[in-house]
Amino acid sequence: MRSDQVRVTIDLKRIRASAEEIRNRTGVPLIAVVKADAYGLGAVRVADALAPVVDDFAYFTIEEARAVGHPGLVMGPPDGEPRDYRQQGLRPTIM
């Protein structure tokens, strides 16, 4: 949704710094869940900013994963051919 009255600025450095802080505090592998275009922030931009910090990515659909371009988990129902998962380095999940 666009608005003439409201402007939002996304600080990708801050997003990355927050992920780094979580990783440092917990000391465990970190998975970035990137779905719905990163809730309107721009999934590709957010994923690229997080890539050096996280251990894995998770998506809801194979299409979201394809758009972002990083291997990871697909949490939604299988919506592609097995070769699509293999070619993109994706792993389906069972919930």
Please explain how this structure is put together.
With 95 residues, the chain is α/β, with parallel strands linked by helices. Strands 1-2-3-4 form a four-stranded parallel sheet. The longest helix has 15 residues, at 12-26. It is built from five helices and four strands; from the N terminus they run H-E-H-H-E-H-E-H-E.
Short description:
This protein has 95 residues and is α/β, with parallel strands linked by helices.
Blueprint of the fold:
Layout: H1 12-26, E1 31-33, H2 36-39, H3 43-50, E2 56-59, H4 62-68, E3 72-74, H5 82-88, E4 90-92
Parallel strand pairs: 1-2, 2-3, 3-4
Helix pairs in contact: 1-3
Strand count, sense and barrel status of the largest sheet are: 4 strands, parallel
Strand order of the largest sheet: 1-2-3-4
Order of helices and strands: HEHHEHEHE
Give the count of helical stretches: 5
Strand % is: 5-15%
**How would you sum up the global shape?**
globular
Extract low-pLDDT stretches: none
Overall mean pLDDT stands at 89
Class by SSE composition: alpha/beta
Rg over C-alpha atoms, rounded to the nearest angstrom: 15 Å
Quaternary structure classification: single chain
CA(first)-CA(last) distance = 31 Å
Strand segment tally: 4
* Portion in helices: 40-55%
